[in-house]
Specification:
This protein is an alpha/beta fold. It has helices spanning 30-42, 58-66, 86-93, 106-118, 154-164, 179-187; strands at 2-3, 10-17, 20-27, 76-79, 97-102, 123-126, 139-145, 165-175, 193-200, 210-217. The protein has 6 helices and 10 strands; from the N terminus they run E-E-E-H-H-E-H-E-H-E-E-H-E-H-E-E. Pfam families: Methyltransf_23.
Length: 219
């Protein structure tokens, strides 16, 4: 079913989340939205952000599956760059208390629709990496799927971890084995963080596993 109650078209998309097919609100024409953003940028319009959030990336599916390996039940979880919210919703379905964030409003409208449809509760808010803060205690877990694809994001990502990750917490990041992910691994090597890497194979494409990057504070 398609819908245009927002200023862009969206639809319900059956998505494998926490082991079951569940409805996820998704943009109906992410390619068209990206082309429109590029056109507006070319015309000199200020403040236009590429809508990469409009697609549910494979990295979110990998992070979803990885959550079976960690105990997040009844724990506080912060998701950054949530996009359509796949990973954060997966955490909520596993019993976590989730705060879902993105740097812009548009994807958060979809997240709220999905949470309501699934009968889940989570805090949903705009949060810009390295700029905004969330009051209260730090989080035992920070999640981010495909948030290392731009070098410009890396300092803000670590600044967010410095401020919002508990001392014994884990930041769990995922990416589809991008070359720039290798560069992120090298970049963080001299930072005060311990880096551990694993891979998760997805059933629909086992030949292209998702990389999971687990960051903890150096002791």
């Amino acid at each position: 079913m398609s819908n245009t109650s927002l200023h862009f078209s969206w639809h319900w998309e059956d998505t494998l989340i926490a082991g079951k097919l569940r409805p996820l609100a998704a943009a109906s024409d992410p390619d068209g939205m990206l082309l429109d953003a590029c056109r507006r940028q070319d015309e000199g319009e200020q403040g236009v952000i590429d809508p990469f959030w409009a697609t549910t990336w494979r990295a979110a599916s990998g992070l979803d599956r990885y959550l079976d390996r960690v105990d997040i039940f009844n724990r506080r979880v912060l998701e950054v760059g949530c996009g359509t919210g796949h990973a954060g919703i997966a955490a909520a379905l596993r019993g976590a208390h989730v705060t879902m964030t993105d740097g812009v409003d548009d994807p958060l409208h979809l997240v709220r629709l999905s949470l309501a449809r699934l009968g889940l509760k989570a805090e949903v808010r705009v949060f810009r990496l390295g700029e905004d803060t969330i009051p209260g205690d730090p989080f035992p877990f920070i999640l981010g799927s495909d948030v290392t694809y731009l070098r410009e994001l890396w300092p803000g990502l670590l600044a967010t971890a410095e401020t919002h990750l508990a001392d014994d917490g884990q930041m769990l990041l995922s990416d589809p084995q991008r070359v720039i992910g290798n560069e992120f691994r090298e970049w963080i090597a001299d930072k005060p963080w311990d880096y551990h890497e694993e891979t998760i194979a997805l059933e629909d494409d086992p030949g292209h596993p998702i990389r999971i990057m687990r960051l903890t504070r150096s002791r």
